[in-house]
Amino acid sequence: MSLTSKVEHKVALDTAAWMFNIVTSVGIIIVNKALMATYGFTFATSLTGLHFAATTMMTLILKRLGYIQSSHLPVSDLIKFVLFANFSIVGMNVSLMWNSVGFYQIAKLSMIPVSCFLEVVLDRVQYSRDTKLSILVVLLGVAICTVTDVSVNAKGFIAAFIAVWSTSLQQYFVHYLQRKYSIGSFDLLGHTAPPQAASLLLVGPFMDYWLTDKRVDNYNYTFMSVMFVVLSCVIAIGTNLSQFICIGRFTAVSFQVLGHMKTILVLILGFLFFGKEGLNLHVVVGMMVAIVGMMWYGHASSQPGGKERLPPPSNHKPEEAIGLVKSNEHDEKV
């Protein structure tokens, strides 16, 4: 296969992975909004546990069919990943409850600079000026779209802080573990989905009762509400898988930046399906700014030096690093 063909093949796969993530992510948001708003199923943590239970069943089937190979993932790394992921889910739910919608959106936007910080510190990634500016334009556009009233209190700030850092670390770990242990998206999901499902199904009912003052076992289950729960779980399988695929193919920062396209689509679809929030002028302007920023980021980060990992630091001794050599070595070279 020629170099041009390889590039075209990679672009096609990247585009397919990204579209898969956008379709499933937007789909599950619309379904969950209908489930909670129309049928009153407000047990978000328990629902996420069901999502991972369905994903676990999918991974077991794929393993039986030979699509998931046996691979090694240290228990310590697995525990860290599950802790980050679960703190992310619970933190986001608590942040939404304790903070205004405006501050919740600001917290979500702050995941991009936090993800950048993690890549710079842990992976020695360096960003060009254009790449940094494009990220700022995306943040500005999404902020114009989504941030309205902003109020915050001490416990809300702590919840948002935990949610932002745990989510950023969880997404960083997806890329890090795939790269470090050379395992694919299916394989990593096979490792992480079962403990996430077990822990969330165990903690979920108590967390939901604390957040909503309602018990999931006392909910009035109807045929339609159960069908929406099942549909949500089916879509969640694709959402979880596509997230692992995208972060594995890109990075956590790219996933966050381009992921705000989903925010824009949710706003549009929410207007079309629910009609409660109108697309006023400042929302439309924000969308346009964000889309320009995303296009600029895609171009800037793909350019030479736009976003690159620096080589590891040299292990040479300090005197060698600055060009000083011992006298006998110098004499030999002379």
From TrEMBL:
Keywords: Membrane, Transmembrane, Transmembrane helix
Keyword Transmembrane part of the UniProt annotation: yes
Location in or out of the cell: Membrane
Membrane topology per record: Multi-pass membrane protein
Keyword Cell inner membrane in record: no
Pfam families in the record: TPT (PF03151)
InterPro entries for this protein: Sugar_P_trans_dom, TPT_transporter
Transmembrane regions: 12-31, 37-62, 78-96, 133-151, 157-176, 219-238, 250-273, 279-297
GO cellular component: membrane
Region (Disordered): 303-334
Comp. bias regions, Basic and acidic residues: 306-320
Major subcellular site: membrane
Top-rank lineage group of the source organism: Eukaryota
Domain Sugar phosphate transporter: residue ranges: 23-297
The protein's name: UDP-galactose transporter 2
Organism in which the protein naturally occurs: Sesamum indicum (Oriental sesame)
Gene this chain is encoded by: LOC105178310
